[in-house]
Amino acid sequence: MPVATNVEIMPWKAEYSVGIKQIDEQHKRLVRLLNELHQAMYEGKSREVMTGVLSQLVDYTKSHFATEERLMQGYSFPGYAAHKIEHDQLTKTVLKFQQDVAAGKAVMSIDVLEFLKNWLRNHILGTDQKYSPFLKGKGVS
């Protein structure tokens, strides 16, 4: 039986766009990393490969959050504080999971991927869509 290739847990959709090029490109990168992690798990790749992809996902998420926060602060977005709290909560959750995996206290599972997928989709479609009109109204594109 042939092995399926490019098994995406979260294909990019136009509806995820916030209309700000830099942010959309970062969101696409996060989606690609999530899909790479899923693909590695689907193919039964080694723990080291999956841990490496997870590490990239965590690092890039922190970088992405910093970009969003810099833009929101720079343009005095009124919803910044609440958005920052969401970022901090997810960062704490994912870092704890990453530490548990590294220490052998947790394993990568489809439940973890579903959590990451749902969080990313809900954050982009919900929270991130709230700053989009504000920033675009300030000339950010």
Q: Spans with pLDDT under 50 lasting ≥5 residues?
A: none
What is the strand tally?
0
Q: Shape, please?
A: globular
Number of domains: 1
The radius of gyration over CA amounts to: 16 Å
| Strand proportion | under 5%
Q: How many angstroms does the end-to-end distance come to?
A: 47 Å
What can be said about the biggest beta sheet? none
Helix content: over 70%
Structural class, by secondary structure, is mainly alpha
Question: What is the mean pLDDT?
Answer: 88
Q: Per CATH, what is the topology?
A: Four Helix Bundle (Hemerythrin (Met), subunit A)
Order of H and E elements: HHHH
Write a concise keyword list for the protein shown above.
Four Helix Bundle (Hemerythrin (Met), subunit A), single chain, 72% helix, mainly alpha, globular, 141 residues
Characterization of the model:
The chain is an all-alpha fold. The chain has one domain: Hemerythrin-like (Four Helix Bundle (Hemerythrin (Met), subunit A), Up-down Bundle), CATH 1.20.120. The chain is built from 4 helices and no strands. It has helices at residues 21-42, 47-74, 80-102, 110-137. Helix 1 (21-42) runs antiparallel to helix 2 (47-74) and helix 2 runs antiparallel to helix 3.
